[in-house]
Amino acid sequence: MNTFLMLWPLLLNTCSFSGQQTDSSPFEYREIYLPETAQGDDEQLHLNSLDRDWGIWGHNLSATLPESPSPSVYARDGNGINRDQFCFSSDALYDYICDYISKNFGTERACRFAILPNDNAIVCLCHRCREHGNKEGDASGAVYHMLVQLAERFPKHIFFTSSYRTTNSLPRHPLPDNAGVLVSAIDFPLSPVHSAEEDEFVALIKRWSGVTKRIYVWDYVNNFDDYFTPLPIFEVFQHRLRLYARLGVNGIFMNGSGTDYSTFYRLKRHVLAALLSDPDVEWRPLLRDFCSERYPVAGEVVCDFLLMQEDMVRAGGKSLPLYEGVSKAVKTYLPADEFVRFYGKLCALLPMTEGKESERLGKMCQAMTFTRLELKRLAADTTDCSRMLDALEQFVQQGYRSYSESGAGLDKYVSDYRYILRHAQTIGNRNRLKGVRLEPLTALDEDYDDITVLTDGLLGLPSCYHCGLMLSSADPALRIAIPAQTGLKRIRVCMARNLIYHIALPQSVSLSIGGRELGRVVPKPLPDDLQRAVAEFDVPSGSQGSLVLTIVRNKDERTMALDEIEGF
Predict the structure, then answer these.
(1) Between β-strands 490-496 and 532-538, what pairing exists: parallel, antiparallel or unpaired?
(2) Nearest residue to 549 (alpha-carbon basis) of 507, 512, 505
(3) Residue 345: helix, strand or coil by DSSP?
(4) Cβ(548)–Cβ(509) under 8 Å?
(5) Model confidence over 92-104: pLDDT tens digits?
(6) Which end of the chain is more exposed for a tag (fewer CB within 10 A), N or C?
(7) For 69, which DSSP code?
(8) Are 526 and 472 in contact (CB under 8 A)?
């Protein structure tokens, strides 16, 4: 999933703050999209904000239209008018946008406006758009035509389009001084060391430098599948911001958790703001001072763990994930044993704190209980999980309901986790396949090649699929051998689905022995949990040799998820 400009269907109209900040930063625009800590915080840290600095932001041109706009504002494709996209050569669309800007922002006070197609692959192919250079899959020509028109009509405002999807082609002529581009760094891995992808990104910026003086980079400061596990980003962003400054980039938008809580967001804002002001600043003393001030009792413990994470990233040289779970984090930036000790120390220190520190540390401990539970699940360890789920449930009751960009709910996470605890208690020691090593007969997906999760004795969570499930895009089928087990009478295959992430149930599951099929099942969701399904097979007594499961992927979906394979 690409986060670039997908989350921001916002229209903002308070434009009161624009232009170069009051320090010597190389960047005229710098924003950190994390929760604000206090009123006036952005100004104090010399940061911009969507609320003050943009008149139109994201894919939101539709909000500039009247209730019944002229049909000419919409794209023409092979099937006629398509209201899911705009015609950027439309005079009516241009007039509507001009009218909106004039009425809401005037012409004297500078403001920024994003002029972007809707977030899809549709391109207008009417005669005028084709004349401006539009072609199948490429709307750049007509979009740039509109951008230039608006820049000339409102010389004190600043207009941006994006290097994204149908506007990846560069304009044929340089843009006006008050027009620019938003370039996503989604394909530039978050790493503190040089990479081949960095060279590609540098080349992209240099190409854009030939046609505009205003290049803003859209970057990322969170793992968007997990807002609660501490993510060490300061080494990474010192490297990146130094690079951006050398390339002449003059605006940075750091996409984070938005208004949702994420662990250490105050610290991130403080240190990242300093790096945006001066990419060469010594940020480690800033981090230590911040921790000492904010956490008089726990500051040293917090600081030491975060710096250890930063050192791990620097030494490992691996890129940070934008969409991954704890199972990937432990290989990259989360030393599991050290985190467990860190979490334990914070929980032990909490009763010794008071006032603001107690409040902040309490939230931190509650949020990181999510991480602790994921590590428990990774180790198939259910000890003390019920108490931890109670703590996480209290966090939900305090209003903290989401832990990821997709809006995945903590309440759903808690209820799903309680489900797997009940299942584990029900099964007890009856599962004859617990701990048995299965043999894949088909290549496993690169990031889901640990087949031991299928016999660890613990279900995974459909709502949080990174840990405990084995995803597969095998085409047409995944085949798994089950070694012969004395006394095995029945096989149960547990599966999961999550339609938000295009994880579907298999088309069919069959069990065979010696080439003879014993049974075939078309999985259906369970009545008590529509995100789960099971396929059960009887094993004839006296069966000799390995059993083979064949799981056929639904061809209309890209991924299926196996959970636990149990034997009785």
Answers:
(1) antiparallel
(2) 512
(3) helix
(4) no
(5) 999 999 999 999 9
(6) N
(7) -
(8) no
Sign of the dihedral through C-alpha 387, 389, 395, 398 = negative
Structure tokens at 400: 């903290």
Sign of the Cα pseudo-torsion (174, 180, 184, 189, in order): positive
CA distance between the termini of the chain: 39
**Which two tokens mark 150?**
């608006």
Q: What is the pLDDT of residues 181-227, one digit of tens each?
A: 999 999 999 999 999 999 999 999 999 999 999 999 999 999 999 99
Distance CA(204)–CA(163), nearest Å, equals 10
Residue entry with tokens 């087990």: 485
On the question of pLDDT at 341 being above 80, the answer is: yes
Q: Are 251 and 210 in contact (CB under 8 A)?
A: no
Cα–Cα distances in Å, from 465 out to 332, 392, 501?
Answer: 19, 18, 9
Sign of the Cα torsion 425, 428, 433, 435 reads: positive
Question: Per-residue pLDDT tens for 19-50?
Answer: 445 578 999 999 999 998 766 778 789 999 99
408-440: b (≥16 Cβ within 10 Å) or e: bbbebbbebbebbeebbeebeeebbbbebebeb
Contacts of 52 (CB under 8 A, 6+ apart): 14, 15, 16, 17, 18, 42
Per the listing, tokens 């000790």 go with: 341
| Nearest Cα to Cα of residue 95 among 208, 465, 87 | 87
Q: How far is CA 28 from CA 18, 70, 250, 301, 368, in A?
A: 9, 38, 5, 36, 35
Sheet holding 516-521: strands in order across? 439-440, 477-482, 547-552, 508-513, 516-521
Minimal CA–CA distance to 4: which of 161, 139, 143? Answer: 161
Residue bearing tokens 């049974």: 519
| Domains assigned to the chain | 10-281 (3.20.20), 311-427 (no CATH), 439-567 (2.60.120.1190)
Alpha-carbon distance of 481 to 488, in angstroms, equals 14
**Helix/strand/coil for 511:** strand
Distance CA 457, CA 425 (A): 10
219 token code pair: 């970057």
Give me the sign of the Cα torsion angle 222, 251, 202, 236: negative
Q: State both tokens at 37.
A: 């800590």
The Cα 72–Cα 88 span in angstroms is 10
DSSP state of 319: P
* pTM metric for this prediction: 0.91
Give the span between the Cα atoms of 86 and 247, in whole angstroms: 33
What's the pLDDT at 12? 47
From the list 127, 124, 120, 121, the residue with the least C-alpha distance to 143 is 124
Whether the ω angle into residue 476 lies within 30 degrees of 0, i.e. cis, is yes
Place of tokens 């995945």: 408
Q: Is 289 within 8 Å of 267 (Cβ atoms)?
A: no
| Mean pLDDT of all residues belonging to the chain | 94
> Alpha-carbon distance 115 to 181, whole Å?
10
Triad 202, 207, 210: Cα angle to 5°: 130
Q: What is the rounded CA–CA span in Å between residue 41 and residue 270?
A: 10
Q: What's the distance, CA 383 to chain centroid?
A: 30
